[in-house]
Amino acid sequence: MGLRSLLYGPYERQLARTLREQGEVPCHIAVILDGNRRWAKASGASAAHGHRRGADKISEVLGWSSEAGVQVVTLWMLSTDNLSRDAAELDALLGIICDAVESLADDGRWHLQHVGAIDLLPSEAAARLTAAVARTADVKGLHVNIAVGYGGRHEIADAVRAFLRTGAAEGKTVEDMADTFSVEHIAEHLYTKGQPDPDLVIRTSGEQRLSGFLMWQSAHSEFYFCDAYWPDFRHVDFLRALRAFSQRERRHGR
Q1: Does the active-site annotation cover 36?
Q2: Which of 147, 118, 140, 126 is nearest to 29 (CA)?
Q3: Which of 93, 132, 126 is nearest to 112 (CA)?
Q4: What is the tens place of the pLDDT at every residue in 169-190?
């Protein structure tokens, strides 16, 4: 065991203790699980192996979140842009994602919700995700949003469409809806409606952009960018993100 490994244990415990005693815990954490393919390339492994290692990390991070007192976690596992990937790679990736979500459902600790455009996914993947989510309907644990086939612009467009359809069903004209339209109408039709907006957004792999993730909901979120690829994301990295969050003065746009 190297010196770094020996030092990390006491450091991690001290960090966890400090956060328990002094830190403000985010209610909702959103995570961009980035870097699986680059981790695989650096390791000399296949992209599929990288995605599987990334999938294995999920339950571990959910356990850390639950222990910290987080109430909602959103995991961005596949974007709408990713749906244009090579068919063979996409099929393999969707299979890994579905296996991971089914494993989370079988765990019995997490209440799962799919967020994204389920209609854009291949029928088999959509059916597997829907069935896995349904099995957790009565689970009272950590609420976990599974963002598969998710795009921020697509979500806002879907919210507007839902608002228009609701108004039309109530017999309203386009002019009526335009005159009364407000930002609250968008919020009421988002995939995450009824949930608190994310307090903290974490992105792994060193990339420092949101790429359209939760565009509407993240208006007042704090951001934390971690250099580690997702499969290498450690508990100490998670605790550092929570520490960074607790040290910031949140203004909520004021």
Answers
A1: no
A2: 147
A3: 132
A4: 999 999 999 999 999 999 999 9
**pLDDT value of residue 21:** 74
Q: Which domains does the chain have, with CATH numbers?
A: 24-151+197-246 (3.40.1180.10)
Helices (H), the chain: 3-22, 36-43, 47-68, 87-107, 123-134, 152-169, 174-180, 183-187, 235-246
As given in the structure block, the two tokens for residue 47 are 């992209």
Report residue 12's pLDDT band, with 50, 70 and 90 as the boundaries: confident
pTM: 0.92
Beta-carbon count within 10 A of 247 CB: 11
Q: Which pLDDT band, with edges at 50, 70 and 90, does 49 fall under? A: very high
34, 197, 199, 232: which is the annotated catalytic residue?
34
- Active-site residue identified among 82, 91, 99, 107: 82
SS3 82: helix
> Is 34 a catalytic site residue?
yes
Sheet holding 72-79, edge to edge: 110-115, 142-150, 72-79, 28-32, 200-203, 222-225
